[in-house]
Design goal:
By secondary structure, the chain is of the alpha/beta class. It contains 3 helices and 7 strands; from the N terminus they run E-E-E-E-E-H-H-E-H-E.
Length: about 140
Amino acid sequence: MKYLSADCILPVSGEACYHSVLAVADDGTIEGIYDKKELSIAVSKISHYNGILCPGFINTHCHLELSWVKGLIPEGGGLDHFLQRLDALRRSVSEPAILKSIEEEAIKMEQSGIVATADIVNRDHTLAYKSKSLHYFHT
């Protein structure tokens, strides 16, 4: 069992919790949120974080396989312009560069608190990363 606290804990439902401890089982199951005064454990067993503990975020629309395009096509040109530029750029990017970009962008999502992603795909470029990731992907 792990015990975590923070300046504020945001539960899935209900009010924000202050002066509280989040109990997490070894398998990651949330056992509960308790007032620090309710627990009979030593304060030294509680890992305190400055800031807020909250449930993981969900990215509801992603095109991870197109991560390599980031910054290469100016925004605001419309779908036709985007697709034309994408088609032209596809011929100039290597498979290793695509796979590296996918991994880098997926890691950025995870580091920002995203735990699940709905990912729209057209090819199998993301399969290798997804098969080894703890991040939940709905493809």
